[in-house]
Amino acid sequence: MELRHLKHFLVVADLKHFHRAALELNLAQPSLSRSIQKMEDLLGAKLLERTSRSVTLTPFGEVVVEHGSRIVRDVEYLKREIKAIQGLETGELMVGASAIPLNSIVGPSIGQFINTFPNVNVELKVGNWLSLYQKLCKAEVSLFIAETKATELDLRDDIEVIPLPSFQAVFCCRAGHPLTDKPQVTLDDIKQYPIAIPSALPKPLFDQFGDLFSKYRDDFSGLVKFEQFQAIKESLTECDLVALAPDISIVREVESQSLVELPVMDIPDIKASFSIVYLKNRRLTPAAKAFIDFINPEPLAI
User: Fold this and answer.
1) Among 134, 131, 124, which residue's Cα sits nearest to residue 103?
2) Secondary structure (3-state) at 294
3) Dihedral sign of CA atoms 189, 192, 196, 200 in order
4) No. of H helices and E strands in the chain?
5) What is the pTM of this model?
6) For residue range 99-111, what is the model confidence (pLDDT) as tens digits?
């Protein structure tokens, strides 16, 4: 069986339609049909049930999808790894990041990496921790940076994590906000204003704030959930919104005095624990190892 036959089959299985799959693959439909037929002949099993409108997988087809997807991913990763081993003068780096470390940690590190290795192609993918984990398993990224403690990513047995320094969760608002006139602020004070929180805030952390984020409390003033904090920072300067975020994400704004970190007396002691995450059973490419050195000052023992 040739790898191209397997790739053809996986596209048909995904789109569930021969004509659309042929367009996707830039093949004539009869050629695609012959490719699938040859694969079925080689395996000695019918993989697809065909109708005039669509196709469905047989039990044999489902097994081929499960194993075939892994085979195609591993072959593509093998090609990239061989190319990377040939040297950091060429190659590619595929890295992922969630919203907060994207701007605060990953962005500056990518700049330094590009200056050092200008011929390495860098692809950056942004998402929440779950989507990044899925991309990691599919070999769409070599590693990613995200919160690993509150999300319990660090408990998964198929990954390795390299912890980075943790950062305190704080409430912040614009300079001149009514709350900045108070020497001390409480969570009850914050209830009077709209609040912005990370959309991926885990429930155990969510619950530590009592009913602060509940839309059912009598004095509810609005709640904004965000994946990208950059847009929220822009919003903070234009209204009385109060945001919960790691202190590292507002360092520049606090220094420029456009945003203020509020002295909240009864805020739960919550820290954002970001880590570098990669798969245990997949060797890091030289480019990935080199990139880690720009993020993590400690020597990498892998």
Assistant:
1) 124
2) helix
3) positive
4) 12, 13
5) 0.63
6) 888 877 888 889 8
How many residues appear in the chain?
302
Angstrom distance (rounded) from CA 241 to CA 190: 9
Between 193 and 102, residue with greater pLDDT: 193
Confirm if 276 and 295 have CB atoms less than 8 A apart: yes
* Res 65 pLDDT > 80: yes
- Could you report how far apart the first and last alpha carbons of the chain are, in Å? 35
Q: Which domains does the chain show, CATH number per domain?
A: 3-83 (1.10.10.10), 89-165+273-295 (3.40.190.10), 167-271 (3.40.190.10)
pLDDT higher than threshold 60 for residue 302: no
Any bridge partners for residue 224, and if so which? 196
The CA distance from 241 to 216, in Å, is 19
User: Which of 223 and 151 is assigned the larger pLDDT?
Assistant: 223
User: b vs e for 237-257, b when ≥16 Cβ sit within 10 Å of the residue's Cβ?
Assistant: eeebbbbbbbbbbbeebeeee
Would you say the C-alpha torsion 244, 250, 254, 257 has a positive or negative sign?
negative
DSSP 3-state assignment of 296?
A: coil
> What are the structure tokens assigned to 247, written together?
């202190």
Residue with tokens 């847009």: 231
**Distance, CA of 276 to CA of 272 (rounded, Å):** 13
Please state whether beta strands 121-126 and 92-97 pair in parallel, antiparallel, or not at all (unpaired).
parallel
> Cα(208)–Cα(282) distance, rounded to whole angstroms?
37
Residue whose token pair is 């395996």: 43
Strands laid side by side in the 92-97 sheet:
121-126, 92-97, 143-147, 274-279, 159-163
* DSSP label at residue 238: T
